[in-house]
Amino acid sequence: MDLGTxxxxxxxxxxxxxxxxLLQSLAGDEYQLRNWPLSALPNPADMQGESPVLAxxxxxxxxxxxxxxxxxxxxxxxxxxILILDEKATDLCYEDVAEQGFLTTIRCPLRREAVQDxxxxxxxxxxxxxxxxxxxxxxxxxxxLLARKTDQLQFLNRILTRASESLDPRTIMNRAREDMDMLxxxxxxxxxxxxxTAAGPEAELYLSPGLSAxxxxxxxxxxxxxxxxxxxxxxxxxxxxxxxxxxxxxxGDIGGPQPAAVVAMPLRTGLTPFGLLALSxxxxxxxxxxxxxxxxxxxxxxxxxxxxxxLYREVQTMADFDGLTRIHNRQSFDRRLRExxxxxxxxxxxxxxxxxxxxxxxxxNDSFGHEAGDMVLRELGRILSESMRETDIAARYGGEEFVVxxxxxxxSNAHTLAQRLRAAISGKIFHFHGQTFQVTVSIGISSxxxxxxxxxxxxxxxxxxxxxLAKRNGRNMVCxxxxxxxxxxxxx
Length: 492
What we know:
This protein is of the alpha/beta class and 492 residues long. Helices cover 49% and strands 22% of the residues.
């Protein structure tokens, strides 16, 4: 408080009436004195109700105070206390004065210079006290800010470390959900990544597991809508990738997006955006400024890790997948078949192989052109991908030939699947430059039962022989090696 611009309260304790009047006069108009007579000294409630800046106490009143009153005054931190000594009283040493809780003593008769000196010293002490309090608050604030900065660095280090440990976008996002939960209650982390193609931007939507069809539709619309201004145009082609690996605390159907409860942030490397990250909560999200800064920094780290994971997957895809059909290529098929056969020998489980060949594929190229042929191959790859279980492996074997590895599948079930594939492909109507056409496939099946230890060359060779049988017998059919044996037996 500024002593020069307001009237401040002083107390007198046990002062004679003439002493109180004189003290008020010597102190000036900047102060107002309230004197408490010896017969009515303030109680603790009075001390709590008012905050005087100074308390002038006569020595007689001090000596006559009951012990509990004296203790209460000594423990009262609000005012600075001044002890008024009688004219003939013995001087007290500073240690005695300070020990009893007084700032100083002043001797009667009261003089203006002495009173003003006490008031000046009181101002100085109060100013120093205010400065110390202010410095203490600043130090505490700096300590709090430093602690928060330390927590922020630890959080960002955790985000960066855990994100850098994986090259799987789903794993990175699941870990991000766990880590972001330290800042605010994150229910799910979902994302949209896009890449430019000749036909326009294509996107992948990584969605929370367990979404209902309606929730999935709403999230797709929300993510596409949020991404459009960043991309600069709408995304019309996209695929959905479920985040199948659930992190701890991840719920099933989280419902559709509630804009107030979603923090959506662009993902960039440098100045180039490539995705959008959506952090959703159960309740509306209200973030402090430092939380926004921390999340922004964390998302920058995540963007780098996710971009590296996407690039790694792209390189891996180029090595293991066919560029046209987007299913496994021959090299990847050979490796995966060896792995599955090794697993078959170890666990004694059945395994089957389908070999498919498009019938009269050359006619399509000759009649409609290679662009139409490529369209057919792409569509066949899509049908195979969508018809397979997660454990099945579809691959382009070469040209218009495709193969499908069916682990844990005996010949009977493989035959059922093959017939379903044949029907799906033959029922597909292709549209190309105003013309329509259909295609058929021939499929050969080979199988190894649970007790067999045949080599992979036998499995492929027998499927190829069964395929040849389907071609020879009129195409658009499914044949097994056993069918060849039956025909030979009938011929004999």
